[in-house]
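Final report, section 2: Outcomes. Of the targets proposed, PCI domain-containing protein is the one most frequently requested by collaborating groups, and we therefore present its record in full.
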Amino acid sequence: MAEMAVDAPKPPKLVLDDFIAAALSGTPSELHPFFESFRTLHTRKLWHQLTLKLFQFFDHPASKPFRVHVFEQFVRDFESKINQLRLVEMGVKVSKEIDNPQNHLTFLTSLLSRIDTEKAKEAHVLLLTTIAHAKLLYGDLEGTRTDMDSAWKVLDNLEGVDNGVNAAYYLLAADYYKAKAEYAPYYRNSLLYLACVDPATDMTPEERLVRAHDLGISAFLGDSIYNFGELLMHPILDALNGTPHEWIKKLLFTFNEGSIGKFEALAPLFPQEPILQENFPFLRQKICLMALIESVFKRHADNRTMSFQTISEETRLPLDEVEHLVMKALSLKLIRGSLDQVDQKARITWVQPRVLSREQIGGVAKRLEEWVNKLSVVEQRIAPEVMIAS
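The predicted structure is given below as tokens.
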């Protein structure tokens, strides 16, 4: 049944009793209560309750071979009477049972032609996104991008969007950019996808592991990603624990701390991820930039004029490469300030905010304590003068 001709015209008008009788004789007994409920709810025109019962049916493992048939022969009879987003969600679920690529796309595009896209914008976005994802799986990157852009034009103007619709779009965008090897947009869209789902219940352990792994790789290789905070706080990284990829999690924290020593200690593992090994010079520059940021961050705001010699020691770079590194940090807007090439000093006025590790938080706490102590000394010194003035 799953390979029925989905490009056929609309089926003949439903004869409910005939449909139910055929279903009861052609399906396992464990599915029979569903069909009896379908008969009752359809007869009483209880479309909402019927929709809920259909979702239960489509989620039942035994329904797998019959899903497309039930959707095409039964649901299509009353599809205009039910919530269009729920209808599309059903259609998306059912379409997964159609293996033939052309039939799969025809099924989805046929459903799209029957949706009132002006009134049911969320349904429109979900269906466009699903069609785009199908094209991506079949290797049509150009078609994927066209449908993805069309879906975004609608989605960007909607408010209070269903989480499932947002999740479908961001999953599509992430997978598209993964196929294009565009690391920064993959990273951003993957995190947006994770914000729309509950990884513990909506993703399999394998999906969590792949997503955590790919997020780590994209964080390292994204040429505009120098703040890993949102990823480091996300439980998705726990999927790497106890796996051969656990070192990637350690490397993420190493970059966040700007620890060149730990980076060099983990570098021998890079051949396990050939793409990291191939991009080693870029990663070396990136960890040097992170070390510079960390070095600036650790200093008091009134002590952020650093000599090139100091920066060389902090980043383990040759002295003649320091100026280029600072200019790179300025151009990436990781820091603000100026260079004094004559005195060979960098005056830093601002450093990019970042998420801190426990050790870094301890450093901040220590600086706050010193600041409070300074205030206390000042207070003790001026207190007598304040008393006299009063």
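Residues 1-8 have pLDDT under 50 and may be disordered.
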